[in-house]
Amino acid sequence: MTERKAFLLRVDPAVLEAVQRWANDDLRSLNAQIEFLLRRALKEHGRPVREAAPASPPPRRR
Question: What ranges in the chain are assigned the alpha helix state H?
């Protein structure tokens, strides 16, 4: 699984409640819904997310 970064988000309670209802309707967690919305907004504005390449395993020692 990819590494996640935590950060504090201050948001109007009414906005948070609306996004939570939307997440519930889409069967997503609030966190997943926020990430979904951010990724969609980035894509729509021509700023796609560049996925990090998977780290290659370290060379084996003999």
Answer: 13-25, 30-44
Q: What is the pLDDT of residue 55?
A: 67
Q: What CA–CA distance (Å, rounded) separates 9 from 5? A: 12
User: Is-contact 49 42, C-beta < 8 A?
Assistant: yes
State which residues form the domain around 27: 18-44
User: Quick one: tokens of 35?
Assistant: 């990430």
Region of residue 22 (left: phi > 0; alpha: psi -120 to 50; beta: else): alpha
The domain total for the chain is 1
pTM of the model: 0.74
Which residue's structure tokens are 């997310």? 49
Report if residue 6 sits inside a domain.
no
Asked, for residue 10, whether it belongs to a domain, the answer is no
